[in-house]
Amino acid sequence: MTTAIICTAILAALVFLLGFNVSRLRGVTAKANGSQMPSDPASPLLIAIRAHGNAAEYVPTMIVLFLLVGLHSPAWLAITLIVGGTLSRLIHAFGMLTAPSLADQTPWRLIGAMGTYVFGVALAVVTAFTL
Q: Which positions of the chain have pLDDT values less than 70?
């Protein structure tokens, strides 16, 4: 269960840090008289907004699954799935923030997204069969 709590804290911090990054870039953009609602896929503000939004879409569900799997599953299985899910979300955020444009599919984004799907579904299946 300790792994579930630590990884929950990491992902919660990720959502807040990505949100702070959006606020920071909004300030930078405002000082430059730029658009607060960018549509250019290469806009750093749009990239930050989507990185935060994507994390906000997946992290809450993963956190609930982490805690359920951490509480009810064998430790080896729980740790594997929880750490894998956490790393996937971190890799995805890194991939989004380092991409030159949202139009570019980068290896880090792809690895992070696929890991999120694989570990997310595995966490859900394990939750369903261990309660």
A: none
Residue 82 belongs to domain spanning: 2-130
Residue 75: per-residue pLDDT = 87
Give the chain's domain count. 1
pTM of the model: 0.93
Tell me if 123 sits within 8 A of 65, measured CB to CB. Answer: yes
- How is residue 14 written in tokens? 């990720």
Pairwise CA distance, residues 128 & 107, whole Å? 31
CATH number at residue 106: 1.20.120.550
Q: Is the dihedral of CA 112, 116, 122, 126 positive or negative?
A: positive
**What does the pLDDT read at residue 34?**
86
Question: What's the chain's length in residues?
Answer: 131
